[in-house]
Amino acid sequence: MDETSDRWIAGDAYEHFMGRWSRRIAKEFIGWLNPPASWDWLEVGCGTGALTQAICANAHPSAVVACDPSLEFVAFARRSLSHPAVAFLVAGADELPRQEGGFDAVVSGLVLNFIPTPSEAIRSMRNRLRPGGALAAYVWDYAEGMQFLRIFWDVAAELDSRAAELDEGQRFPLCHRDALVELLECEGLESVDARALEIDTPFSDFDSYWAPFLGGTGPAPSYVGSLSTTAREELKLRLRQRLTQDAGAPIHLTARAWAVRGIAGVDRQVRAV
């Protein structure tokens, strides 16, 4: 792993950087799905438990199996959410658990961009569904709709040519509606549709905007951690100039995610292995 590669190592740091926004968008996602009560859910890439919590609070599940390949994130999620319907497992998209008859819903929040072969992940998720079950996912719109990161990477690229290569908006072609719809349709899901979900991301002042970038977990904080002290201070100064007119003034931004869902054909057979 080179010094600018993405790091996903600390649940507390992730919560400070992105988790608070992840929890807001997860609630919007469940509201859009509007699932019936008592479903059995499989969650792929649960991270620190934002979507798991939203399922429990808003979907009245019968059971939720929430998986993530990060032992640290799973440990954080277990500490953060104690619910009789939830089981957290350390597992990646290539080793998902199965259930006799299949799950009613298989979902993934803010993960598909970071999986090297998302088509294989969707195929694995689809194969865990019961016939007629729902597969749904969402990703941040890094290209245009994630304002606090869009501004960060634009300023970073003005100072450092490396930053343009690390920019999630450039790296992740899935952060577009049509790409997500095509991904599900190509893997045999039916009645596929998508929509934009948007939340406010307010910061009380510039320091509250900047501090989460120092946690070392996620692409942008990993990049900040790779910089020299001088380069980091220059980036901080340029961002402050871009974002604030008055010292201590609040910063009002928004964040958009693209959500997609599809249905497994009713003629499919699901095997437990």
CATH C-level category of the domain at 11-143 and 169-200 and 256-263: Alpha Beta
- Specify the biggest β-sheet: 7 strands, mixed
What is the 3D shape?
globular
Q: Output the CATH topology of the domain at 11-143 and 169-200 and 256-263.
A: Rossmann fold
Query: What is the assigned CATH homologous superfamily of the domain at 11-143 and 169-200 and 256-263?
Result: Vaccinia Virus protein VP39
Please indicate the percent range of residues in DSSP E strands (runs of 2 or more).
15-25%
Number of helices: 11
C-alpha termini separation = 34 Å
Structural class estimated from helices and strands: alpha/beta
pLDDT under 50 segments (min length 5)? 1-9
Give me the Rg, rounded: 19 Å
**What's the rounded overall pLDDT mean?**
91
Order of helices and strands: HEHEHEEHEHHHHEHHHE
Bin the helical content: 40-55%
Please tell me the CATH architecture of the domain at 11-143 and 169-200 and 256-263 by its name: 3-Layer(aba) Sandwich
Tally of strands: 7
| Widest sheet: strand ordering | 3-2-1-4-5-7-6
Task: Characterize the structure shown.
This protein has 273 residues and is an alpha/beta fold. The chain has a domain at 11-143 and 169-200 and 256-263: Vaccinia Virus protein VP39 (Rossmann fold, 3-Layer(aba) Sandwich), CATH 3.40.50.150. Helices cover 41% and strands 23% of the residues. Helix 1 (11-33) runs parallel beside helix 2 (50-58) and helix 5 (147-159) packs across helix 11. The chain is globular, with a radius of gyration of 19 Å. The chain starts with 10 loop residues before the first helix and ends in a 10-residue tail after the last strand.
